[in-house]
Write a structure and sequence with these properties.
298 residues; mainly alpha; 11 helices; 69% helix; 0% strand; rod-shaped; disordered N terminus
Length: 298
């Protein structure tokens, strides 16, 4: 019966089978791990690297200093590949996990700029900027405070107008639609009518005027809250889609990772080929011609 070497075939090394043999292989890998002090960073596990070398040692069965050196070089390339995948994962997480935070930060900064209107410019009111969630929340707060004040002390044109102008802006003739500010002026004017005018024209009493305006405030608050819920739902969906898009990193950082990965792949293939050639030569088997791959530079 001819041996596998006589047949020109290389039988795959099964590695040590006993526990003692595995222990010796592990010790050999650690003993010959000359690159471990350089390749393993402070925040990485030297033990895990040692296990990687031991597994490769057991699988590839190197003999002699040169084969052993090539096996550990394969280990260092594999370790760098592992580090590359961790970096790629970190790049994706960095893009994904802070989408909502970044959007929130932009909204806050924009709201601060909107709220600080110079005194020499026309105040168009916060209501025009309610696409910003912080501005919308600010409008709701102003209206809630106005409602509470009117419930407690009634109409006070000086204070009420200030709050309404903050939300709805200064009065001008170019407005296309009426708003709560217009309703306030109507009910305020009606509440200040004399008794004779109210009895003659059937106008509401001051108390009824206040009640009617409070109802309109409540309706405006409900309207804005419905708008808030709709906008929140849209923004949540938009954020989810943006997060999915960022599952694949983009930009200069990712291009650098791709180039590094390609370099590792070439180095791995070249080193493994060198090891296979050495082992075939050691076993007296025919050595395949060396394959040269030329990479053209565009």
């Amino acid at each position: 019966m001819k041996s596998s070497r006589q047949n020109g075939l290389v039988s795959k090394a099964s590695g040590p089978r006993t526990e003692q043999g595995k222990q010796r292989a592990s010790q050999n890998a650690t003993k010959h791990g000359i690159f471990s002090k350089v390749i393993v960073l402070k925040n990485e596990s030297r033990t895990e690297y040692g296990r990687l070398v031991a597994r490769l040692w057991e699988s590839l069965q190197p003999e002699g200093a040169l084969e052993e050196l090539l096996v550990e070089k394969i280990a260092t390339i594999t370790w760098r590949k592992r580090r590359l995948l961790l970096a790629e994962s970190a790049e994706i997480r960095k893009n994904m996990e802070f989408v909502e935070w970044d959007q929130r930060d932009r909204d806050q900064k924009e709201a601060e700029q909107i709220g600080s209107v110079p005194t020499d410019e026309t105040n168009h009111g916060l209501i025009r900027e309610i696409y910003n969630p912080d501005v919308l929340e600010c409008c709701l707060q102003h209206l809630a405070e106005l409602r509470q004040k009117i419930e407690e002390v009634g109409f006070d044109s000086q204070q009420d107008v200030f709050a309404l102008a903050k939300v709805y802006g200064d009065r001008d003739e170019k407005r296309l639609y009426e708003d709560l500010y217009d309703s306030y002026e109507t009910w305020l004017e009606t509440s200040e009518c004399s008794r004779e005018e109210r009895e003659c024209d059937g106008l509401a009493s001051p108390a009824q005027c206040r009640k009617n305006f409070l109802q309109e405030i409540n309706e405006e608050i409900r309207r804005l809250k419905r708008d808030q819920e709709a906008r929140t739902s849209i923004q949540t969906t938009r954020t989810e889609l943006e997060t999915v898009c960022r599952n694949v990193p983009d930009g200069p950082g990712f291009d650098r990772l791709l180039r590094y990965e390609a370099s590792l792949e070439r180095s791995f293939d070249r080193t493994l080929s060198q090891l296979e050639r050495l082992q075939r030569m050691r076993l007296g088997q025919p050595v395949l011609p060396k394959l040269e791959v030329l990479h053209s530079v565009p």
